Write the structure tokens for this entry.
Amino acid sequence: MRQIPSTDKDLLGLAEQVGGCLRAHGWSLVTAESCTGGWVSKVITDVAGSSVWFERGFVTYTNVAKHEQLGVPDSILREYGAVSEATVQAMAQGALVHSHAQVSLAITGIAGPGGGSPLKPVGTVWFAWGGSAGQGIHTLQHLFQGGRESIRRQAVATALTGLLQHFA
């Protein structure tokens, strides 16, 4: 995997690349963010003209929001928890269902400083990238190191990089 961008300028560069890729395919993007709190959407909308390829973003920080806005089944949230592969897959699928976009990105994780457990320590982040044109849903888990800001920044960069890897 590429080195994680460390500056806002680096993140903007990734977002510009994502926009170029989506425009080339005639696709639009929807995001479903939890631990990043809308940071991916913010970086994307920092790109002038992103309204051509960014359809909408959901910030679903609580389980109730994940269920109400994205249709994540309560049974998944109860059985696997908010930070899990099953949940992030359901978030990515739900974002596609509840938007007009062709590509989705979902993130859920534990940015800290608290909230971790032995099975899901602080820094655990799940990602999903989905496509409505038969691309399926791709998932990835990372265990990031650092403080809250660093974990969230790494998550944003990984999310954008994953879009390029799966949809370029």
Residues 8-167 form a domain with the Maf protein fold (CATH 3.90.950.20). Helices lie at 8-25, 39-45, 63-70, 74-80, 85-97, 148-167.
